[in-house]
Amino acid sequence: MLLQQILLAILLLSAELHGAADDRPEWVKNGREARFADGLHVQAVGQATKQKSSDDNAVRAEAEDQARKAIAEQLQVNIASQSISVKFESASGDFREQSVEKILSSTNITLSGLRIEQHYYDKKQKAWHALAVLNRRTAAGAMHNEMVTLKNGAAAALENAAASMDSSQLL
Question: Model-level pTM greater than 0.90?
Fold first, then answer.
């Protein structure tokens, strides 16, 4: 009889401990929220542990920052160089050349479309978790707009170079 009570107590305690671990949302356990399809979204979870003297809002904000950082680390950074060379022949037959080189870098991009979708406080770990989600279409649209702006800037540089050559002004 005593053995049965001990076994029952162990089973109940085990079930309680197992149930407590299952209280965490799936996105905290596996880093993904099923409702955000991987083909359309980039997801990341950030975590920050609360210390005795730390402000709860600051710890939550740190978890959000960690999630944003994790998304940024998943994105590739591209650096491109564009060279423009313009050659002109004057009426006297002299040749003039002007070159302009512009290095385009997207290392400091804004993550347009990134949202903190959910928060969770784990009382056992004393840690905040934040789920960040980046919509790929929104981000692609913002990147396209940035590329158009850079392309227009390069075209303006070429026009300025051509105008300088026409007026015989070299850089």
Answer: no
